[in-house]
Write a structure and sequence with these properties.
Elements: H1 9-39, H2 45-72, H3 81-87, H4 99-126, H5 130-152
Helix pairs in contact: 1-2, 1-3, 1-4, 2-5, 4-5
Length: about 160
C-alpha cells in the first residue's frame, strides 16, 4: 500500500538516507562505547565503567528509534556491520586504548553523531517532517550533553 503522509517519496528517501548514516554512526558509537566499558582500566575504572554502561544503554535504545523512523518513511534500515562501516563517519577503535584515549575517542564520536544529525536538517525542514526533526533534536541534545560530560573528565 502506498505511503501517503504528506512527504513525497524522493524526500522520504533523502531523509531515510540521512537517517541511515545517523543509524550507522549511532551503532558504531554504541559498539565502541560497549567495548570501552568492557576494557577500561586505571584509577578512573569505576567512574568510566559506569558512565560507559549508561551511555551504551542509551545508544542501544536510540538505534531502535532511528531504525523505526526509517521504516516509517518506507525504506529498509541498514542492519549489518558492512553497511554500518560504509555509512558511518566514526572509525572503529584499534586495540585497547588507555582510559584517557577512550574518553577522547568517545567525545569525538559523540560530536560526530551531532554533526551527522545536524546535516540531515535541511531536507527534513524542507519536507516539513516534524517527527524526524524532533528525533534529530532529541539525539543532538543527548550527544552534546554526553560529549560535555566526557570532555569534563579530561580537564584539570
Amino acid at each position: 500500500m502506498p505511503i501517503n503522509i504528506g512527504i513525497d517519496e524522493k524526500a522520504r528517501g533523502d531523509i531515510a538516507e540521512g537517517l541511515s548514516r545517523l543509524l550507522a554512526d549511532t551503532y558504531t558509537l554504541y559498539l565502541k562505547t560497549h567495548n570501552f566499558h568492557w576494557n577500561v582500566t586505571g584509577p578512573m575504572f569505576q567512574t568510566l565503567h559506569l558512565m560507559f554502561e549508561e551511555q551504551y544503554n542509551e545508544l542501544a535504545m536510540a538505534v531502535d528509534q532511528i531504525a523505526e523512523r526509517i521504516r516509517a518513511l518506507g525504506f529498509p534500515a541498514p542492519g549489518t556491520y558492512s553497511e554500518f562501516t560504509r555509512l558511518s563517519s566514526i572509525a572503529e577503535a584499534e586495540g585497547v586504548p588507555k582510559a584517557e584515549d577512550m574518553i577522547r575517542q568517545l567525545v569525538e564520536g559523540q560530536e560526530a553523531v551531532v554533526r551527522t544529525a545536524r546535516s540531515i536538517f535541511p531536507v527534513v525542514e524542507s519536507a516539513n517532517d516534524e517527527p524526524t526533526a524532533d528525533l534529530l533534536t532529541q539525539r543532538m541534545q543527548v550527544h552534546e550533553k554526553a560529549a560535555w560530560m566526557l570532555r569534563s573528565l579530561l580537564e584539570g
